[in-house]
Amino acid sequence: MKYSVSHKGEIAQAVKIFGGTKTVKPGTKNLVVDLPKQLTEEQVEHYKARGVTFQKGAAKAKANQSTTKNGKTKTGQSDQNITALKAKVEQAEKAVAAAKTDETKAKAQEFLDEANKALTNAQSGS
Fold first, then answer.
1. How many whole angstroms separate alpha carbon 126 and alpha carbon 123?
2. Among 16, 71, 82, 113, which one is least packed by beta carbons within 10 Å?
3. What is the pLDDT of residues 26-58, one digit of tens each?
4. How many Å apart are CA 100 and CA 126, to the nearest integer?
5. Where is this region: Disordered (predicted)?
6. What angle do CA 75, 77, 79 make, to 5 degrees?
7. Alpha-carbon distance values, 30 to 25, 41, 62, 74, 103 (Å)
8. Residue 67: partners with Cβ closer than 8 Å, 6 or more residues away
9. Angle CA(50)–CA(62)–CA(55) in degrees, nearest 5?
10. Integer distance in angstroms from the first to the last C-alpha of the chain?
């Protein structure tokens, strides 16, 4: 059965899952695990006493501290994305100003609108 596991205790705990055990570290939230069978009340109390809670059904997994391959956190990556989007907005504004025909100006304006929308979404998501 799929469970969503969170750990608010201070010491990492081993949880029995299919194929062995999974170490649940302190601060873990919504870690999806597949347990061999439904938990008994004794097991729930055992884990609860140690700060580990289970929720039946798997919630969407969230990474505790996601890093990319080069070691940058996703927050840092988000900042880079916003900087890149600001540059695109600037570029689009210049294209609108430089457009000579109505058709080119309309396309440049469309690009500017899309860039502004993407920038707004990125800033609200961070």
1. 5
2. 71
3. 888 888 888 777 778 888 888 889 898 888 876
4. 37
5. 56-78
6. 75
7. 12, 20, 6, 18, 51
8. 73, 74
9. 45
10. 34
